[in-house]
Amino acid sequence: MEPLKTAVIGVGYLGRFHAQKFSKLEDSNLLGVVDNDLKRAEEVGKELGVPWFGSLEAMTVQPDAVSIAVPTIYHFETGKKCLEKGIHVLMEKPFASNLEQSEALLDLSVQKDLCLQIGHLERFNPVFEEFQKSMEDEVTSESSKENLSPQFIESIRIAPFPKRGTDVDVILDLMIHDIDLIQSLLKSIPESVEANGVSILTPTTDIANARLRFANGCVVNLTASRVSDKAERKMRIFQRGAYHSLDFGTGQARRVKVDLNKPVTQEMLQPEEIMLDKGDALNSEIAAFLKSVRSGKKPRVSAEDGLAAMRIAWQIKDQLQKQ
Question: Based on the domain organization, do 152 and 230 belong to the same domain?
Fold first, then answer.
């Protein structure tokens, strides 16, 4: 079977990594890289030994599938162009600049029967995959799925001020990762949202905290900052009789599970520590995208998932505007 013809549109900091992965994956024939900064396109093209172009139209052969890693303000325009040409799309997060654009791209992908995957990379992080697997194992061994659903989730995602991504606020830049993870676990929109945020170095929000309440009673506390002196990506998940601590940066997970039919002792609360290989989440994400294109099955992070995360993000942004 011939590999899929691929390309990467936008080869800045993140797009270059996309191109590197596409150039090595077995089911990918990287036709070239595209960037309106021809000097940058040439640099990455020469690095990978592939042609470079200033636009998609300049390519001599149309790709079957592309990664789009342009600035967020160009997501809609670029994604629409590709989908209209019949090209499958892996769109870097956030989905688009606003809800209307996200909805329009989703509708177009459905109309054209094309794969549109959203680049929420943490779904492919081994520490989150291990947590999901343990949850699935518990559900199959317990009679009540409801008793195992998260009751409280706390997430913190902080990073030094970036050289890129400041065309959007910290909600769409960083917090959107955890919003997507929460949505993938709870599969619903919060009933109420409280949020606070401040602008420090940009005209938009640079530090934000949000408290979400869901219909099943779960409370979620999210913190994101892009003006920290260190990087940290952690999530703590509490459910009846269990606690999970996930460190997305180090690959370390800690887990406590208690049989509530027995008296709880201090010894029972000693955490099990799991150290996972950091893996290569980006490579896994792109390989999953190509597999979805090939099979025609819905991607792990679908356009519907991306839109759900955007809707929660907008609930938070709306609360910030009311401050």
Answer: yes
